[in-house]
Write a sequence for this structure.
């Protein structure tokens, strides 16, 4: 059999590397010729994007003996990666330049040291959330002379990032276009007994979430000041950083284009004013900076005119975002979540001056009304809109926005209680939608407040003790079934849709077969039949939530077995113990199993 036929057969076995590796191993056992072809196939692989749960460490280590040409490798947290795996990598993958080990908690300093000695061409390494690593690993990785990208986020045992330069008394940051020839000449002319100057080439550094009890601001400033070639820097969740650190970043990292200082709560307008000197900034994340005001935006607007991404969620002192957006015509993404003072005037200014806007988050901006939504309708490039808890929003705004923004992929309207079934009909025309969140949109149940009554609505009075609330039932059914037109949906939240019926879910599940996340909490009319239909058609489900569905009896367990990717399941609180036990035993891939709000089963990567 020709080589290309065997390779095509392996590739056709599945997208995942685990499946292909299993097929390749089976073929290699057939005959010597097949084994040779499999070895040639492994030797030709350059990039492995994901090695996960289905790949055994033994099979992967056997494959490594032939993966000599791999340059890029990602080992997920589900994969049982340990120091032995890193030892195999160091011996068999000399061409490796990019390695992603995020969340691999079994690896230690010894494994990283071995890896650094063997894979000398490493340029990018990600060890975020590898909780056993210390500054010894940082020092070992710093010896990789080609290293340009380092991520040690949330490695809380790293207490000294200055270990990056521990072996060098003098630090020179080298960048092809910015090398100081005079300093190079002086270095070469030093006495031979003087330790060799190590040139730091880092362009990307992530030290987010490190242990600030043992790591001082001066340590952070020392590292950042030494890495003058940085273009991407993440110091988010390093809570002891102040305006002093911001000034140091602006002074030393003049080539910064991407910066994340989220949750650095001590930073004020003075610090942001200093950062504005980084005129090449294109992406800026500064969420949860409770002390910054409109003055910060004004400073950024006056100098940082290249911004295309600005995230400032929970910056509660910011009042008027619209006053600065005229300086950012290239803005494509804006996050103003819970900037509660933001009004329609700001939204209109944003829509007017940012015609390329693709993503906007305005959740909990309580003053935004239909005027803001109508303004956003002019941004035809929008793909992501979050208007959760914009309580003044009505059908008029949603209909206008969904009519013109035909490229919408993500739409979140949580607790927009004034929306009715008219909005559902409009949303259903957005055929490219992948994520839709309509949780607690009570008006979509067919119930509306008297102040918004339809002419033909039939009034109903709900009495409770001495109080009475007048509402109307505008219909006896919902229009949720119209969402069947959104055939590309992968995530759908319909929690609190009290009038959702089995037939509605049948229509949706039959068309939206690519659903991976589904929330049906408190959809009280659904029975076991609805879950069976969902499990039958939506076999790619990863997460399913059924809390508060009190009519479910548990006969849907067998159907759930068809969802082989299911890792998270929340059952109604009244679910019988034998049903819970059966699900726990038979759904072997479940990482999270809850009965009501009680955690029955929870597994994490070791």
């Amino acid at each position: 059999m020709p080589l290309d036929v065997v390779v095509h057969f392996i590739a056709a076995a599945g997208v995942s590397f685990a499946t292909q590796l299993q097929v390749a191993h089976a073929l290699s056992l057939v005959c010597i010729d097949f084994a040779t072809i499999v070895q040639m196939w492994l030797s030709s692989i350059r990039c492995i994007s994901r090695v996960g749960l289905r790949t055994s460490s033994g099979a992967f280590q056997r494959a490594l003996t032939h993966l000599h040409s791999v340059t890029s490798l990602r080992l997920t947290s589900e994969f049982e990666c340990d120091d032995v795996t890193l030892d195999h990598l160091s011996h068999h993958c000399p061409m490796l330049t990019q390695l992603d080990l995020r969340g691999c908690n079994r690896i230690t300093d010894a494994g990283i040291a071995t890896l650094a000695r063997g894979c000398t061409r490493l340029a990018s390494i990600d060890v975020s959330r590898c909780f056993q690593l210390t500054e010894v690993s940082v020092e070992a990785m710093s010896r990789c002379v080609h290293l340009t990208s380092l991520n040690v986020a949330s490695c809380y045992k790293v207490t000294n990032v200055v270990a990056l330069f521990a072996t060098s008394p003098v630090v020179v940051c080298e960048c092809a276009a910015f090398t100081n020839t005079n300093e190079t000449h002086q270095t070469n002319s030093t006495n031979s007994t003087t330790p060799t100057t190590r040139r730091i080439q880092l362009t990307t550094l992530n030290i987010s979430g490190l242990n600030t009890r043992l790591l001082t601001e001066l340590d952070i400033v020392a590292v950042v000041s030494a890495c003058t070639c940085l273009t991407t820097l993440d110091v988010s969740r390093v809570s002891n950083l102040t305006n002093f650190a911001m000034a140091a970043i602006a002074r030393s990292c003049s080539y910064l284009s991407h910066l994340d200082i989220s949750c650095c709560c001590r930073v004020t307008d003075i610090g942001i004013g200093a950062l504005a000197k980084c005129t090449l900034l294109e992406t800026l994340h500064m969420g949860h900076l409770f002390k910054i005001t409109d003055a910060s935006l004004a400073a950024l607007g006056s100098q940082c005119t290249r911004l295309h991404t600005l995230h400032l969620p929970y910056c509660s002192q910011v009042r008027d975002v619209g006053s600065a957006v005229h300086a950012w015509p290239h803005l494509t993404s804006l996050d103003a979540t819970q900037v509660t003072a933001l009004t329609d005037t700001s939204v209109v200014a944003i829509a007017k001056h940012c015609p390329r806007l693709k993503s906007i988050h305005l959740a909990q901006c309580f003053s935004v009304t239909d005027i803001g939504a109508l303004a956003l309708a002019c941004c035809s490039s929008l793909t992501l809109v979050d208007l959760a808890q914009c309580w003044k929003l009505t059908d008029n705004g949603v209909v206008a926005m969904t009519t013109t923004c035909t490229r919408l992929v993500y739409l979140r309207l949580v607790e927009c209680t004034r929306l009715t079934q008219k909005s559902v009909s409009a949303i259903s025309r957005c055929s490219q939608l992948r994520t839709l969140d309509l949780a607690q949109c009570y008006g979509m149940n067919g119930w509306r407040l008297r102040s918004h009554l339809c002419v033909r609505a039939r009034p109903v009075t709900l009495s409770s003790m001495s109080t009475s609330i007048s509402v109307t039932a505008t219909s006896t059914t919902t229009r949720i079934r119209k969402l069947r037109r959104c055939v590309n949906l992968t995530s759908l939240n319909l929690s609190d849709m009290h009038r959702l019926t089995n037939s509605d879910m049948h229509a949706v599940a039959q068309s939206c077969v690519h659903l991976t996340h589904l929330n049906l909490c408190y959809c009280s009319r659904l029975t076991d039949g609805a879950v069976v239909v969902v499990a039958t058609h939506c076999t790619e489900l990863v997460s399913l939530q059924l809390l508060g569905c009190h009519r479910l009896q548990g006969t849907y367990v067998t159907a759930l077995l068809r969802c082989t990717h299911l890792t998270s399941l929340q059952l109604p609180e009244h679910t019988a113990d034998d049903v819970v036990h059966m699900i726990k035993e038979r759904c072997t891939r479940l990482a999270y199993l809850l009965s009501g709000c009680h955690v029955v089963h929870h597994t994490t990567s070791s």
